[in-house]
Amino acid sequence: MNIILGIIVVLGCVIGGFAVHGGNPMALMSPIEVLIICGASFGAMIIGNPLSVTIGVIKSGGSLMTPSKFNKVFYLELLTLLYDILNKTRREGLMAIEGDIEEPETSPIFANYASILKDHHIVEFICDYLRIMVAGNMAPHELESLMEQELEGHHTEASVVPGAIQNAADGLPGFGIVAAVLGVIITMGKIGGPPAEIGAAVAAALVGTLLGILFAYGFIAPFSSYLQGKVRDEGRAYECIKAVLVASMNGVPPQVAVEFGRKVLFHSVRPSFKELEEQYRASKK
Predict the structure, then answer these.
(1) Complete DSSP assignment for 212-253
(2) pLDDT at position 283, please?
(3) What would the pLDDT profile of 73-87 be if each residue is shown by its tens digit?
(4) Is 265 helix (H, G, I), strand (E, B) or coil?
(5) Rg for the chain, CA atoms, rounded
(6) CA–CA dist 255, 79 (Å, integer)
(7) Do 243 and 263 touch, CB atoms closer than 8 A?
(8) Could you tell me the CA-to-CA distances from 240 to 76, 211, 220 in Å, in that order?
(9) In sequence order, what E strands does 154-197 have?
(10) Rounded to whole angstroms, how far apart are CA atoms 101 and 215?
(11) Rounded to an integer, what distance in angstroms lies between the CA atom of residue 181 and that of residue 73?
(12) Taking phi first (over 0 means left), then psi (-120 to 50 degrees means alpha), and beta for anything else, what does residue 93 get?
């Protein structure tokens, strides 16, 4: 919703302001200028990135229309899942969860948290480090260090697509100038013609510069920021898991270990202590 609202505000203010000053909004509709600017920018992105990144940029269009799934409800389920797993290890020993982490799809614990189970990467991350804990051959600080290295790599990889989009945004004003120069070249060929025709050609050339700047700062750069925000939200989920598992390895009881994870969350999505307790009780029914 905020993406659509933002687009309406940007276009409404720019085109509306232009119309209020007596401009004809139709004068800004120049498909050829859009083709030159957007086509050249997309081609430059293809040159500068592996094919997988370009495909990722195209696929990211769907992410722009969906809100982040990492909300308070998601974290209530995640923290409760971790509590259930750690509580089972405390009561029955680490070996008791071996079946759960080897086949989480059939695990009665994971089955209670369908939204978490749908996220293959989150589940894999949890199970991988629980396997290490079950093996019992790694110190807590070593586990934490390994997690930090993996999360650093994950964040770098996840930031590649937003970074490619940001680079495209940075190049759009330049390609707007290219479109404007091409328009000036065409205008120079009309020197000596009717003044109205020359004026229209100059105006069309200036539209290229306008569109390049508008697309860059009004749309593409904000799209990149939105996707980068999703990367940040996902990274915080992994940090939450890391805090809980490291605390558990240091001998902290399950309910306190989960508090370590709750405290690293942003306030806007952090469940309260009371909400988490109520979720524990609800999951036991």
Answers:
(1) HHHHIIIIIHHHHHHHHHHHHHHHHHHHHHHHHHHHHHTT--
(2) 65
(3) 999 999 999 999 999
(4) coil
(5) 26
(6) 10
(7) yes
(8) 12, 42, 31
(9) none
(10) 47
(11) 53
(12) left
Residue 87 has, within 13 A of its CA and on its CB side, a CA count of 13
- Work out the end-to-end distance of the chain between its first and last CA atoms, rounded to an integer number of angstroms: 36
User: What is the residue whose two structure tokens read 């094919």?
Assistant: 51
Tell me: the pLDDT tens digits for 195-240? 878 887 888 888 889 999 999 999 999 999 999 999 999 999 999 9
Is 131's pLDDT higher than 70?
A: yes
Q: 3-class SS at 103? A: coil
Distance CA 151, CA 144 (A): 10
Write the CB contacts of 35 (distance below 8 Å, at least 6 apart in sequence): none
Each residue's pLDDT tens digit, 236-281: 999 999 999 999 999 899 989 999 999 999 999 999 888 888 887 7
Cα–Cα distance, 37 to 60 (Å, whole number): 20
Four-point Cα dihedral 113, 122, 162, 217, nearest 10: 30
Average pLDDT over residues 6-18: 90
The whole-model pTM stands at 0.84
Nearest alpha-carbon partner for 162 in 238, 49, 40, 269? 49
Residue 80: which of 248, 285, 277, 260 has the closest Cα? 277
User: What residues contact 73, with CB distance under 8 A and at least 6 apart?
Assistant: 115
